[in-house]
TrEMBL record:
The keyword Transport applies. PANTHER family: ABC TRANSPORTER SUBSTRATE-BINDING PROTEIN, LEUCINE-SPECIFIC-BINDING PROTEIN. Keywords: Amino-acid transport, Signal, Transport. It comes from Deinococcus rufus. This is ABC transporter substrate-binding protein. SUPFAM superfamilies: Periplasmic binding protein-like I (SSF53822). Residues 21-355 form the Leucine-binding protein domain. Residues 1-18 form the signal peptide. CDD domains: PBP1_ABC_ligand_binding-like (cd19982).
């Protein structure tokens, strides 16, 4: 009788667990200076969860989002992650910014819970990385390399200047561009960084105008991209190519904020609604609805793919045990509307998804993919 009662109780407990929810943890910036990106991430998470639950959930469970706000602050991100770990989530996705994500990845490795990176691009997050960190999105060099590959194929361009923000991402772009441009046959006429809070870029831009470069490359904080672009037009800086490396330039708000001053800008990114991945247009529509009609950025699509990868790993693991989920993540092979997701160790990177860099150009107020040729939906238009 006692054995029968134990069997019944175990069956009830198993049924209850199956009928419960699978909590996927996420840490992102819902407030603070990265809040715009955090909103994009949250939209991507929720669209993925809605899609998964519409198909019946995972292993008999509905998926739920356990999201914590890092307030754009590293210490708060670590506290948020600790809270999620104590809640026994099997995996955490986060954060937006590289400066927050790097220490977050180190913490998650110490507590042996897998972290999926959706948007942070600092090379050192996965190079060398660790066994518990998996990056769905690209590393920063993909943006710069894809741009310079495009410039190498564009005849008549010989000189360049570079201006980047003085943060981890900006410094990475500056380092890559400084190395890759000369190898592509360019002479660098100027290379500068600026600190957050600078509002008047005109002295720098006037200097660049005097140098008359063929190419101008920017990597900027979100809040600076629009001001910088407007001041380019104001001072009459007219290179044949002017490019923004992702970040604030890749946001839909850049198009509305900079308006006609942005026309002709090249913007590097890794997802655009016109990409040739199956389901991309449907994903764009669903993300836009999740954002209450606002235009989604690549950050929302990256976060959508990260959530799919997290849930897929739990499903294949057949368990919410973090170690089993980590092992399953290493075997990921997904096709998504963001693009393929497969974590590999190559070229010094650990658990890094290989992502194709896109070159878009602002044409008639929208981002049009112009490179690489296999992905192009339009043609590059050079300045005169």
């Amino acid at each position: 009788m006692k054995r029968c009662l134990t069997t019944v109780l175990l069956a009830v407990a198993t049924t209850a667990a199956a009928q419960g929810t699978l909590q996927i943890g996420a840490v992102t910036s819902l407030s603070g200076r990265f809040a715009t990106f955090g909103q994009m991430q949250q939209a991507g998470f929720r669209v993925a969860i809605d899609e998964i639950n519409a198909r019946g959930g995972v292993n008999g469970q509905k998926v739920a989002l356990a999201i914590e706000d890092d307030a754009s602050d590293t210490n708060k991100a670590l506290s948020a992650a600790e809270k999620l770990v104590n809640q026994k989530v099997p995996v955490v996705i986060g954060a937006y910014a590289s400066g927050i994500t790097k220490p977050l990845s180190q913490y998650m490795a110490r507590v042996k819970v897998p972290l999926i990176v959706a948007t942070a691009v600092d090379e050192t997050i996965t190079k060398p990385g660790n066994a518990y960190t998996f990056r769905v999105n690209n590393q920063s060099s993909v943006y710069t390399r894809s741009l310079i590959d495009q410039l190498r194929k564009t005849p008549g361009l010989k000189t360049a200047v570079i201006l980047t923000s003085n943060d981890a991402f900006g410094k990475s772009v500056l380092t890559d561009a400084t190395k890759l441009l000369p190898a592509a046959g360019y002479t660098i006429l100027g290379r500068d960084t600026y600190d957050q809070g600078l509002t008047d870029f005109r002295p720098l831009l006037n200097r660049y105008r005097g140098q008359n470069p063929d190419v101008v490359i920017f990597a900027s904080y979100e809040q600076d991209a629009v001001a910088l672009t407007k001041q380019v037009k104001e001072v009459g800086l007219k290179p044949r190519v002017i490019a923004g490396i992702a970040t604030g330039f890749a946001l839909p708000a850049f198009l509305t904020g900079a308006a006609d001053a942005a026309e002709g800008f090249l913007v590097t990114m890794v997802w655009n609604p016109d990409v040739r991945y199956p389901g991309a247009q449907s994903l764009y529509t669903r993300l836009k609805a999740a954002l209450n009609g606002a235009e989604p950025s690549q950050h929302a699509a990256q976060s959508y793919a990260a959530m799919l990868a997290a849930v897929d790993a739990v499903k294949r693991a057949g368990s919410s045990d973090p170690e089993k989920v980590r092992s399953a993540l290493a075997q990921t092979n997904l096709k998504t509307a963001f693009g393929p997701v497969t974590f590999r160790t190559y070229g010094g990177y650990t658990n890094q998804n290989s992502v194709v860099g896109l070159i878009t150009q602002v044409q008639n107020g929208r981002f049009v993919t112009v490179g690489p040729a296999s992905a192009a939906r339009g043609k590059l238009i050079l300045g005169k």
